[in-house]
Each structure stands twice: as C-alpha cells, then as structure tokens.
Fold these 2 entries.
Entry 1:
Amino acid sequence: MKTIELKIDGYERVASRVDRDYHGLIAIHSTKLGPAVGGTRFWKYENDEAAIKDLLRLARGMTYKNALAGIPFGGGKSIVLRKDITVDREKIFRAHGCFVETFGGSYITAEDVGTNPDDMAIVRRETKHVAGLYGLSGDPSPFTARGVFCAMQAAANHRWGSDELAGRTIALQGCGNVGCHVASLLHKAGARLIVTDVDPAKVDRLVKEFGAVAVAPDEIYGSDAHVFAPCALGGIINDETIPQFKIEVIAGGANNQLLEERHGDELEKRGILYAPDYAANAGGVINGCRELLNWEASQSLAKVDEIYDTVLAIFGTAESEGIPTYKAADHLAERRLQNRER
C-alpha cells in the first residue's frame, strides 16, 4: 500500500493511493465552509493525467456547488480508477474506505458516477465518513433530478416569461438514474422528450414509459428542441457540439458540462441561456444533509426547491454585470466563501 501526496496550487490536499487492484485519488479543494463533501467516481480514464484533471475540476466544482446551495460543507472528490479486469467491488471499496479514513473526517464521500449505495455500505465498513447509505439519505438521483427540473423552470421563466414546460421539447442526453427521473418530471409537466444514451436498453425504457423519441448519441446535439438537458458525463459543450445546437436553453444534471470556460462565452454570444451545472445539479448533495445534518426529508426538499431562486439570481447577476452565466454563478459562490472568511 502506497500513498503519494500531490502538491497542487489552490487545493488543500490531493493524494493518490495504490494497493494491488485498487488505485484511488482524493482531492480536497476547500474546507472553508466545513468538511469537504463529494462523491466517489468509479471510472476508466485514458491515463492517470486525465483522471487527475477530472478529479481537480470535480473537487473545485463541489466547493462552488455547496457554497451556492448554502450548505455548510466544502468541496472534495474521489476517483477509483477502473481497470480492464474482473472487479471485486468489496475489496476495492474496502480499500477506498481505508483511504477515506486517512483524511480524518476532513473529506466525506458518497456515491457518484459508477458507484451506488451498496458500494458506500462497503466503504462504511472502514470509515464513518460516508453518506448515501440505504435507510438514510439513500439514492440522491431523484433529488438531483428535482433540482434540474427547478433550474429548467427558472430558465423557462427567464427566457419565455413562464415556468410552464408543457409543449416544450427537451433533448435529454443520458438516461441513467438522474436522466430517468428528469424525464419522468418533464413527462408529467407535459413536455416532449427526445432522448439518447450509449445504452439502448435505457433509451427503450424512456420511449416505452414516456413516449420519448430516440436518437443516436451524436444526433442529440442537433435536435430541434427548446432545451438541451445533459445528464451524462461532462465536457459535452465544446467546439464540435456548440455549432450544432438549435436549442435556446441548457439545463442538466451532468458535472463540468463546459469543456473549457470559453465555451460558456460562446454560448453567451449565441444567445443560448445556460443554467450553470453546479447550480442545477446540487439536489443530490442537498439530500445528503439528511444524514450529515440530520435534516428531515421535507427540509431537504424545500432546500432543493430553492435551486429555482438560485438560478434566477444567477441570470439576474449575469444581466446586471454583463457577464456570462457561468461567471455569474462563480461570483455568487465566491461571495459566500469570502463572507465566511470575514
């Protein structure tokens, strides 16, 4: 077992641990507002450098997400690198729990892409610094989806003068846990759905349950829709996809949707209203407050619904300061971080 500390400017601690088939990375971006909270991603990357780059972006995003959501936690993230071998999840996630424990409570993990409450129960055998367990806050995806829906309503209000999504067409990328719940909410609201996913079975489910129209993964960007809802992986707003967009609004559950910050500037130039990802998808971490802060379920839901007002405030700040919405979100989060320092 070997742990290597990585010195990276702007981060409180970044470490890597290797133990046989386990290779984990943990980053703490900030604990100014409280212990760093962020899920564990179980994913295969092209190389270690790509994994670290993603880790750092995700950890920073959690700092800003938690600040903007108004909850007393900092930002962190962890990645368990997936390899081309048969996975013994118990051994891997017990090793990950041991790694989390070395942070002494300054980092608290939960599920993320590629992990689930069963994995977190295994992590819990080695550390108490874990959330998202069955019987407690559990699966965060319904709450993440609810927040995305609130963000979409706020964007509709700002762009078209009404919260109503009935009759609007939504191009939904990613039909996993969050995407499926978003689709359900949109269907109930009377929206039309265009959907895609790399897993055809997930697409078929939404077609059957909600009457969605299926398109190939590469076709979703050029869909004739009002809203693009990215609910898969990040970096999908980029030089290749932006020219294809016919939509007026982007609001989804994926993290790090902008490949680079300049792509947020490009959306602004094209008149596409962007609900910054870490504002829209904060419902999951807010739900975790049921475990971490002993909130009632109703308290968590009320806080998730505040995402509507937060997103409207971002749009208002963007207009008053003459800046893109992603910068406006950063400004609001940074003000809350600065106020805590005083």
Note: The chain has two domains: 2-61+73-123, 141-340.
Entry 2:
Amino acid sequence: MSKTHQQPDKDALIKMVFDSLHLTVLHYGLWFREAEHQLGLEKAIAADERVWDKVLETTLKRLASAAGTQLHNGIPAALNNLSEEELAGLADEMAKNWVACDGIWFQDIEHNYDYEMFTTKRINDSNWVRFSNIEAHLIMQRYQLPANGGLPVLKEALQHRQYARICKFEFEEKANKLIVRINECRVQLARRKRGLAEYNCKSSGVAEYSYFALAIDPRIKMRCLSCPPEPHPKEFWCAWEFSIK
C-alpha cells in the first residue's frame, strides 16, 4: 500500500524557497566558473553581461507572479515606489551585505581548514583577481564608460564600486598619476571593534586594485604606497598610486 504524499508545512515551504535561491546562486556561479575555465575570463565576463539581464528579468517575472505584485518596466512596484533617498539606503545595505558575505566565507575557511591563514588568503586573493575584473567591466557597461579611457575613467569607475558605498576615501591627482586613499575601511574598523589585529590585506589589495585598473585600461600601472601590515598614518588605512605613460 503506497503512502500518501504529504504537503510540506509553511516552515518547510519557506525553507524550500530559500534553498531554491541558494541553488540558483550556486548554479549561476558554477556556470560562470566553468565558462571561464573553458573559454577564458574575458569571454565568461562577456557571457555574464548577456545572461544576467535575462536571468534577472525571468526571475522578477516569476516572483511577481507568485507574489501577486505588479511590475513597472520590469521593476517591482515596491522598489519602483521608493524615493531616491530610500533607494540609496537600500544600495548601501546591499553593499554592506556583499562585504559581509565575503567575510563569512573568509572566516569559515580560516576557522575550519586553515589556522595559519595561508590557504584562506590564497583563495581570497584569487577571488579578488576575478571579482575586480568582473566589477570593472560591469561598471563600464552600466555607466557607458569608454575603454582605454586612462586615469579619468579609472577615477570615475572607482566611485561606482561596491566598496565606494561603504568606505570613505579620497583622491589626489598629479601629472599622469592618481592616488586613492581609504580613510575609513569597514573591514579593518570591524576587526578593531572586535579587538582583533589589523588584517594583512596588502596581497589582496594588490590583486584588487591592479586588476581593476587593468580592466579599465591596460596601460595603467598600480603601485601600493601603504597597506597593512605596513605602518600607516591615522588619516588613512591604505593608499594606492595609479600612473599611465
């Protein structure tokens, strides 16, 4: 005698929705990573630029249909009705969530597999090589910035990064040079509040800023002026110099 299939209860259904989101994010990342492996990073980024808008469109349509909400030009009404100030606050929270998720991954690998932090930093630095390249391309596409635009385009692009929404920074411009100083670093300040030592972030910073600049304009060279674990003044945590000939 066959057993009757029981409909999951409300809590189980909510968890199923979250599982679907989890698997969608993982599957998307696996597609990108394997496309990079088979075709190279540049072609994977180009594919992502074509694919993401379609994925977002079909996802929003299905969510809106299931929730019984309206879409206006493909945007949920609840989001469309927010003021510019409210949207800016939401963008800030999304940026904070992005860096928090990055930190959760870092800490899990460090605490469970790598007490000397060697492997964790290697994973982190490798991720920054890819992420910085991807983010630079996304920003150039979103804001229609020209390729090979030199330091002016780099300066514009840096102001649209996720980090730009959660860290305070300043620019100094010289002849054929652009210096960026991070005055308030959310990650380092969080560590200080928890009584932890400054994070040795120079290797990841070198990967992050050099590959971001290369994606904007391959002629741009990057040089680290100061970054933990090196000493730095109270006015800033790290400083990076970009130059072009």
Note: The domain at 87-245 is CATH 3.30.1380 (Muramoyl-pentapeptide Carboxypeptidase; domain 2).
